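Supplementary material to the annual report.
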Amino acid sequence: MIFRNETTISLRTEKEAKTWFKTMLFWSFSIFFYSIVISGRILALIVEIKINKEKFMREVFPMPERQQINKSKKRVDARAKVTGKAKFGADLKFHNMLYGKVVRSNYPHARIKSINTDEAEAHPEVAVVMTAEDIPHNLFGVIIENQQVLAEDRVLYIGDGVAMLAADSREAAREAAELIEVEYEELPGVFGVEEARRPDAPVVMPGEENNQVIHHPLRKGDVEQGMAQADVVLERQYTTQFVEHAYLEPEAVTVIPEERNTLVTVYGSVQNPNATRDALATVLDCDLSNVRIIQDNMGGSFGGKDENISSMACRAALMALQTGRPVQLVNTREESIIESYKRHPYTMKYRIGARENGELVAMEIEAAADSGAYACQTPFVTWRSVVQATGPYEVPHVKTDTYGFYTNSPYTGAMRGYGSPPVIFAQESMMDELAWELGISPEEIRRKNMFANNSRTASNQKLDNHEVSLAEVMDKALEAIDYQEKYRRYSQPQPGDIKRGIGFAISYRGVSLGAEAIDAAGAIVSVQKDGSIIVYSGLAENGQGLKTIFSQIAAEELGVSLDRITHMETDTSISPESGSTVASRSTLMGGSAVKNAAENIKTVIKEFVAEEYDYQGEIVYRDDALFTSEGSKLVDFPELAASAFHSGVFLSSYGWYKAPGISWDEETGQGRPYFTYVYGCQAAEVEVDTGTGEVRVLNMAAAHDVGKAINPANVRGQIYGGTVMALGHALMEDLGFSEGYIRHTNFDEYLIPTIKDAPDNVEAIIVENPDPAGPYGAKSIGEPAMELGGAAINNALSQATGRRLRDLPLNLERVLLGRNLSREG
Amino acid sequence: MSKVKVAFTLNDQEISLLVQPGERLLDTIRDRLNLTGTKEGCGVGECGACTVMLDGQAVNSCLVLTAQVDGREVRTVEGLGGEEEVDKLQQAFIDHQAVQCGFCTPGMLMSARALLNDTSSPTREDIKTALDGNLCRCTGYKQIVEAVEAAAEAEGAD
Ligand code: FES
Ligand code: FES
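Predicted assembly:
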């Protein structure tokens, strides 16, 4: 109203009105600008004071250094493990427990004509005998549901179960299993991918039209046009073998029927509790909430205690429900090797075109993986191969075709490295062959072609959201092993039988699942009223040190000492479903989830502190207490926990982390398959006795960009373990296959590296370029550490002998006879 | 088959049992006496997970019959440290991150203990020879060797 009056007054004459208007306008703008200047000035002053104050505070009270992160903290489970108190699957005993036993096939492929269980059933200590007939829902599988709990009318591989029983004692179960009579009609089997892909090959999997499990194409540019531009085109074939995980603990599960509101509770060495729960719910035809999986300490897994543990858990559960008694199934080593899935053997054909100066112009790759009797994880394993098959190199024209085929060999699935170790073996061997052909050094050819920031991969993904540190890892590994000097020296003629060589390999590796599946993980952090903290994680400890890393992250965020944290075993009825503990995703995915849970708690604490302690500023969490940003102590952590509890404030939270977006075109293999990558370089120095064929790896150097090492000693442990596992893969591991039969069923014949086979020295070099996607910048190390050794050793061996081998393992015979010389392309 | 009576010392305690003549020491320890720290990884004497000390020597308990230990002294991982304390070797395994999955650990510790009881300052080669029968799939052995070296040094300093 007042405004209107004024307006009325001001409109006495038009002129007056104009003048008034101009004056008002002038003053309004002046005031407006002035206030902006003033407020800007005030703001500037405030900022200045604040900045100065922060600077001042920083100098006087330096930001506490991180107390947990990037520190070689002792493993939280070490004490229980060195005292023998840590319980593993086979250490459990339950009242009234039965011991299970499985009768397996006698043939790689046969029709089951009859099964006679009468005598076994009559055994006084036997409580139950079952065959596929007793199992209404007999199929399970993570990707394709075609794995049989027990074989129905055909056994598809030598490890297929045919019948099972449970008895009061292990001896009785063993005895009774011998009494089961199975009559088979042997069928011709399909062995090896070459046979499996022939149009007239018998079809392994019932209901399928042919033996192909999967085909992943990738097309970039025009490969023929690329080859036409090349000065040199090389064509080579490489093969790799079946590899046993050889976790030292054979698989073990115990199933308790109808315990605590569940249909079944399962304890055991379960790598992926949620996958095992899925399998049980399918086979038992019940809700997920009726199945509870509680993980025990895992005596190693390396990808291996997934489907075959699910299968064992299903078998034990069926017998437990049938008898109403707990049933335990523990494999002997022989049973483990016969039944468990292996690493996929690959046959890889590489055709590669380069200019005279070493520049790559085209690559054509066909990689075929032997899936064995079941699909298991073949579609995903081979998918990883697609992305890594061309190596960390810029190639304008690429055509790759990656396949998986069913055969009557043991089924194959996840093993540390997944689809990468075979293709890296081929690809990085090939780079050396190309360098030789062009007369340039292995180092030069890689430097000329390898990724740098903003490079584009074969999938046409631009590497622009993290540091592409190939040059750095390569420089560091080569320097650590004194590569240049040794390469020069070993290139000279070496008299006598004993010869040395040095070689290396580099890789890039997509972190976490990529376009395989939804990628998210969760955790629970729960502060108790005495300030102790319980952590539950949906991802599982497999022996790699996950509990330690997650405890460090929770302790770092809340500023408490590590011994306040108790990290529980994964329990599917409590822990948020987080997908599988695979793909070197734990630290990044699960670690971020733990961090998120702790941050949620800190948000609640901040409100509580504002109210209770009248402090609104930033809280610093350290030394088991809360401090103001000026450094004065607000309250000890246990006291805070108690007072929050007594004020009805809830200091527990779920944490969740969903991976950044990705994309993938199945038809062309183009897109953004992973949200970030890690880079590694491993070099090996070998000595070979050309008289006997014996190869010794003298030294290895391994440089890996892990983003940020949460626990450097753990990272080194992963590197040492990974390189030695790769050494086994490269030089000795061999299941002694012949037409679907496994001859090497225990460690007397299936040789894995002993302490004396390990290199004299492995130099582990941690490179840190923090990644925006990971907690504190951390990425991964478990698998990268294993994927390079085979190629590095092969390259070193080739330098020593002057001969190129292309088939793993590089055992005595091959080294001595160079059998595949005839394949020289 | 008639059972045999066996009396032996296990982790400083007198034990007396009736066992089947064919019973493995490993099973007696794990199943009958409930000491599950000793592990079974292969059952054929190749992996060392079942290593215990028999009269101070490291042996694979999967290859020893319980009847054979009559009157002798057996020590398992549970008998290494005190009730509350761990011994220097166990502590060194903790400090040097020599433990990953931990399944090989009890056997490793027993082989290493037997070595350190015999040799106060073993060379790296001595250590490798003593642990050559103990497989580990996780660690690549390096931190295990470092731990044994550190323990030897710490015990030598006493
Ligand atoms: S279980 Fe005895 S040596 Fe392997
Ligand atoms: S720590 Fe796993 S086998 Fe040695």
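The CA atoms of residues 84 and 274 of chain A lie 28 Å apart.
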